[in-house]
Structure formats: structure tokens, C-alpha cells
Amino acid sequence: MDAMAAELGKVPPQQLEAEQSVLGGILLDSGGLPAALEVLKGDEFYRDTHRVIFQAIQELFERNATIDLLTVCDHLGQKNLLESVGGAAYLASLAEAVP
Fold first, then answer.
1. pTM of the predicted model, to two decimals?
2. Looking at residue 31, what DSSP letter applies?
3. Which of 17, 26, 45, 90 could form a disulfide with 51 if both were Cys (CB 3.0 to 4.6 A apart)?
4. Residue 52: inside a domain, yes or no?
């Protein structure tokens, strides 16, 4: 919760399950990513770790690289960010959480 919301006693809008489903869906099948990027810029994600994961996906997309669980984990690892987002296990759980 951000500081201002905490002071006001309010919880900012969040849908963590929706965020997880979006990221997990992209990890499973990045075919819809171009359409998603028309709508999402990354700052829509409430959880910081989700913004970092989405940014990694965007960076891979901009390089025309394959986007899947392995490549996103590798990219985050190269940037020394993999453990800070929960590690490979968390990214795998995102893919598993897709309804």
C-alpha cells in the first residue's frame, strides 16, 4: 500500500489475480502480446514485482526475442532481478495460475 493511501486508511485499487493471469498468459502464449501492449504500459500493475516482470517481457518483445518462461527468467537473471521478483518458481506459478 502506498504511503498516501495508508495515511487515508484506503487500499488502492488492485486485482493481483488479474495481474498474475495476464503475466502468466503471456508466459504461456505470447501471441497476444502485441494487442496487450496497445493497452498495457506496465504502470497498471499494482505489485512492483509484476511491473518488473512486465518490463522484462516488453524488453524481450522489442528485441524480437522469444517470450516464454525460460527466456524471461534468463533475462531477469542477466539483470540480477530474478530473485527480487520471486525467482523462477514464482514465474512458473504465474503460468500455472492461468485459468
1. 0.85
2. G
3. 45
4. yes
